[in-house]
Structures are given as C-alpha cells and as structure tokens.
Design a protein that fits this description.
By secondary structure, the protein is α/β, with parallel strands linked by helices. The chain has six helices and five strands, in the order βαβααβαβααβ. Pfam families: AAA_33.
Length: 165
C-alpha cells in the first residue's frame, strides 16, 4: 500500500506564532509549506484591504488549494499549511481534505493568551512594517471574536502547545 503524506495545520489566535511554527515544522518534516498569506498576496495583489476582502478571496482560493494539497499528499509528501484553523468550519475543511483521500493529519493548537498574542503582534509590526495596517489591536479584537478553541468531539488529532515551543 502506498504511503500518503501527512497534513499539519494550525489553530491559534492572531499573533500566536502559527506562521513561525509552520516554517519550523516544514524544515523538521521536510514538507511542502502552503501559506495562505503568500497565495493571497500573489493572486490578489493590493486587493485585500478589509477583513471582508480577506474572507472573499480566501473562499475563492480554497477549492484550488484543497485539490492541490490532496495531490501532494497522495504522492506521499507531507504538507504544512499556514492557513487558519480557528473555527470549527475552518477545521472541518482540513478534516474533509484528508478524509476524502484517507490521509493522516495533525492540528497544532498554539494556545496563547491574548496578552502574549498582542505582544507578538506589536513585535511583528516593528519587524514587518508592511503589516502595520492589519496588525493592530483592533483587528486582533475583531478576529478573536470568531475564535473557537478545538474540541475533541471534532475528531481531530490535536497537539496543544502553550507557548512558542
């Protein structure tokens, strides 16, 4: 029987370190990294100015990404996805992706409190000035309203980390 790749994806509030951890894991696992921010900025340059714009373009991107990731997994290559899995609906998308091809997965839950996340966001604003417009406390508070911590009942393989491990 042919070995399928494993899908790794992340849950954590804005500023929890999902992108940083995804890059580290990609190296550790010799995996393919898929970054939603990269895809969106490449395909829709200068078109995402509001949270609603992000939601619209992210939804347009997902069918293509799903098929692409399934193809990569089906040839035995692991994939690390730096796409949000911060709501039950988002996590179901990942679970459906692997279930349809019988691949394995791991959800890495970066469980940091709001204060730590806001400190990371402030640091990121200094290190990446191009993100200043979006990396604000107001945006953090807005998107955090939608955050849903993963539950065992969702049927996911969850690894919970409580810091930048």
């Amino acid at each position: 029987m042919k070995r399928l790749g494993k899908l790794y994806f992340f849950c954590g509030k804005m500023g929890a370190g999902k992108s940083t951890k995804s890059k580290q894991l990609t190296i550790e696992k010799h995996a393919v990294l898929m970054s939603e921010d990269e895809w969106l900025s490449f395909l829709y340059p200068n078109q995402i100015e509001t949270f609603e714009d992000y939601l619209k373009f992210s939804a347009q991107l997902k069918p293509l990404v799903k098929k692409h990731v399934q193809n990569i997994l089906s040839v035995g290559t692991d994939v690390v996805m730096d796409f949000p899995a911060n709501t039950q609906k988002q996590r179901k998308w990942f679970l459906d992706m692997v279930s349809e091809i019988n691949a394995s997965h791991q959800l890495i839950f970066l469980n940091l409190n709001n204060e730590k996340c806001l400190r990371h966001i402030a640091q990121r604003r200094n290190e990446q000035p191009e993100r200043r417009a979006f990396d604000t406390e107001e945006v953090f508070n807005h998107v955090t309203k939608f955050f849903e911590a993963p539950e065992p009942s969702e049927g996911l393989n969850i690894l919970e980390l409580s810091g930048r491990e």
